[in-house]
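Before relying on records like the one below, remember that each one covers exactly one chain. Contacts with other chains, cofactors or solvent are not represented anywhere in the record.
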Amino acid sequence: QAAKENKPILLLFTGSDWCSACIALHKEVFDKARFAVYARDKFIPVEIDCPHGNKMSEEQKKANNDLAEKMHVEGFPSVLVLTPQGTVAGGFVGSQDFAGVQEDLNTALKNVKTITDAEKLEPEAKAKALAELYRNLDEEMGPMASDLKAKILELDPEDKTGLRRDLERQAKYDQLMEHTMSILKQGDSKKAIPEIIAYCDKELATATDDDFKLALIEAKTTFLFVGAQTKEDIAKMRETLASDLQKVDQSKADAEHYADVKGGPASFETDEEGLEIAKKYREAIEQLDKIERE
């Protein structure tokens, strides 16, 4: 129907009997007359309900849940705008008021036009236009726009847009965060901190991407700081940071990220203030340890 009428699809993933944000979004926005007026001639609406109860057959429930998984939906409600051909062009996750919904949907409609217009371009120009659009999507939209990402990578085998490089870098960063959290969740922060620092040193020894090096240095410095209990520890942290930063080629790294990492330990005025902040961080981690054990 969407292709026949040449209209974008407004695809809503909801949990009607368990998701309070979904219920609120319906009540405060989608069920209101002004939204009906706004959306009437703009979209083909499709709602995919993923309830916990027995309001639909098990077969339908499985089909809906399978579609949500296929679309990489992780949060509810997820509201996606698709081109008439089914490419994710934008949307949002979570509940918000009418003004916020309208703003996000209007942005997605502009993206639909960009994707449609890009079809008329040569492959290199098309890849560039689509890559810029993909990068401007909200972070939670990235996984759900996997079809758009795949199209860009296919159009750009030499990675002239840099998107492949950025995705590989993000994957490494996500792996770093996942590993760090898995260590912390073991429930003993005193053992976890040196283990995380050792992991960062191991990865730094073989890392080739300068922005990923910065991410490793940032994580390492953070946990050196959290573990600092004396002024000497603070001084050692600064020395280690300065030494690690020499491994980064500033001309190849993101300048803002480099400045943030370099300036991080200088964000407190005195070492005494730094030690007090470090203590609060440790207390917070210890509280998380307690919650994990319980």
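The first helix runs from residue 2 to 5.
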